[in-house]
């Protein structure tokens, strides 16, 4: 049984107002997308509520917890510890008993980079984080439309967007996003689906 009151209180302690607003937007987007694509809306609500649980932690604390939980998997996480808020958040949520469902914990864990083999709930949370109503970046409308039509195409376009953004900023690129993108393309090819036209616009 989900203890919403306890989760709300834990979130208020950890997240600032801006992040709480974002979280509510992710909940709305995730529940709508879960209904659209046949994922469990209550699992989507729980994962969305908790997806940024570790977001407010300072970099040195994320690194310390990342080492304690053994979740550091890429040099980009050492260079840019904010990337660890996803896997560390999943571990904290589990440790504090806020959620136990493996699908929910996986959706929290992979909501930043994605992971090859990711399931429906993981895809829904990854995309909801990117297209929630408060997001406003060039191309977000394209992603919103794609997410209505084809979840995997939307995910591919979102990954392209994120990868292009990281390259533009000159930071280390976490290979998780690249592996996830390659996995999605290979899956589509295996299923005989047409190669998607890259949705990356010049604005990205
Ligand atoms: N593959 C990657 N390599 C490096 N940085 C990444 C990668 N994927 C996402 N990021 C960055 O990690 C940060 C956190 O991502 P995310 O959880 O989606 O962010 P947000 O804080 O916007 O909810 C963002 O700055 C994003 O650009």
From TrEMBL:
GO terms for molecular function: bis(5'-nucleosyl)-tetraphosphatase (symmetrical) activity; metal ion binding; nucleotide binding. It catalyses: P(1),P(4)-bis(5'-adenosyl) tetraphosphate + H2O = 2 ADP + 2 H(+). SMART domains: HDc. This is bis(5'-nucleosyl)-tetraphosphatase (symmetrical). It holds the Pfam family HD. The lineage of its organism: Bacteria, Bacillati, Bacillota, Clostridia, Eubacteriales. Keywords: Hydrolase, Iron, Metal-binding, Nucleotide-binding. Residues 19-134 form the HD domain. PANTHER family: BIS(5'-NUCLEOSYL)-TETRAPHOSPHATASE, SYMMETRICAL (PTHR35795:SF1), SLR1885 PROTEIN (PTHR35795).
């Amino acid at each position: 049984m989900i203890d919403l009151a306890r989760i709300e209180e834990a979130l208020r302690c950890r997240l600032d107002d801006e992040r709480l607003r974002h979280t509510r937007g992710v909940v709305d987007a995730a529940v709508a997308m879960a209904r659209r694509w046949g994922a469990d809306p209550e699992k989507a609500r729980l994962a969305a509520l908790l997806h940024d649980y570790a977001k407010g932690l300072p970099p040195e604390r994320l690194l310390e917890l990342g080492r304690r939980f053994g979740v550091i998997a890429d040099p980009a996480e050492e260079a840019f510890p904010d990337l660890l808020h996803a896997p560390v958040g999943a571990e904290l949520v589990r440790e504090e008993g806020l959620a136990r469902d493996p699908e929910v914990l996986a959706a929290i864990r992979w909501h930043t980079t994605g992971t090859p083999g990711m399931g429906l709930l993981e895809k829904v949370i990854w995309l909801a984080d990117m297209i929630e109503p408060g997001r406003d970046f060039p191309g977000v409308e394209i992603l919103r439309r794609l997410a209505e039509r084809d979840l995997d195409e939307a995910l591919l376009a979102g990954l392209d967007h994120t990868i292009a953004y990281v390259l533009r900023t000159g930071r280390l690129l976490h290979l998780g996003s690249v592996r996830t993108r390659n996995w999605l393309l290979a899956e589509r090819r295996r299923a005989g689906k047409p190669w998607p036209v890259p949705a990356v616009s010049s604005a990205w």
